[in-house]
Amino acid sequence: MLQLFTKELKTMHVAVFQMEVLAGKPDENRERVKTWVEQLCREQLERPLTIVLPELWTTGYQLEDLGELAEEEGVETIAFLQQLARAHRIHMVAGSIATKKDGGIYNTALVIDAQGKLVYTYDKVHLVPMLNEPAYMQGGSVPPALFELDGVKMAVLICYDLRFPELARRLALEGAEVLFIVAEWPLARAMHWKALQQARAIENQFYLLSCNSVGSHNGTDYAGTSMVIDPWGEIIVEGSSTEEEWLQCKVDFSKAAEVRDRVPVFSSRRPDLYR
Ligand SMILES: O=C(O)CCC(=O)C(=O)O
Fold first, then answer.
1. Coiled-coil segments, which residues (predicted)?
2. Closest protein CA for atom 2 of ligand 1
3. Which of the residues 124, 153, 194, 255 is marked catalytic?
4. Which pLDDT score is estimated for 10?
């Protein structure tokens, strides 16, 4: 049964850091995130503010060195983010980082609230054959679930997960109002990146916010084109395909209810014929 949308909180500011990740340099990447957050928070004083980071933003796709670079349970980066979140009173959909646990290496998304609490983690379930990810990492065994920031139901998927519409639909049916996609999506498949994001937003009638990286590593160029897409499928802001930059906007959560009134996809569903 589809749940009702959040009534109390109508709007939230978001800022997406379309970052050029420096592969194999976690200290420098953390420092660059800190500098960005400080600059952003000098300019943006309104709260709630949620910031978004890309996939594997501490290490990049330096997969062959993850044995050394991946963090035990993500402890160092989590502590770093918690401190930053508390200091600036910002929520963080903090992309993903390489973590070591139970003898394996995982691609783990992190969500931290403005009080510095780690509210959600998710280990990427679909590893990317095209980037040889399965040779270096383990896939998570728990499906993505909802988390809440200021009472708004949200979810996060990691990059390749975007290609599996059943994940996004299940999250929408559970009541997700916003879907974040954190990514290092290659330029070679940029057309898919853009079309799939818009499709997920249109078919599920929720906000979709993505954060992709730019730059290149080991011969792979990344596609940038981070986006904020509203529940009608309109692109509100869109990053360039090459430049490190940040995108900012205000999202209005009442919009999804309007869209669902206009095109009542969810009440037209026939779950008796399909799941
Ligand atoms: O699906 C794709 O084309 C890209 C996926 C990817 O790069 C990733 O999951 O890191």
1. none
2. 160
3. 124
4. 81
Cα 126 to ligand 1 centre (Å)? 9
Whether ligand 1 lies within 6 angstroms of the CB of 163 is answered as yes
* Maximum distance among all Cα pairs of the chain, rounded to whole angstroms: 53
Conformation bin of residue 103: beta by default, left when phi > 0, alpha when psi is -120 to 50: left
Residue 41 annotated to the active site: no
Alpha-carbon span 44 to 15, nearest angstrom: 10
Domains of the chain: 12-261 (3.60.110.10)
Q: Are 215 and 190 in contact (CB under 8 A)?
A: no
Query: Strand pairing of 245-252 and 11-18?
Result: antiparallel
Task: State the pLDDT at residue 254.
Answer: 87
ipTM of the complex: 0.96
Q: pTM of the entire structure?
A: 0.96
DSSP SS3 for 242? coil
DSSP-derived secondary structure letter, 224: -
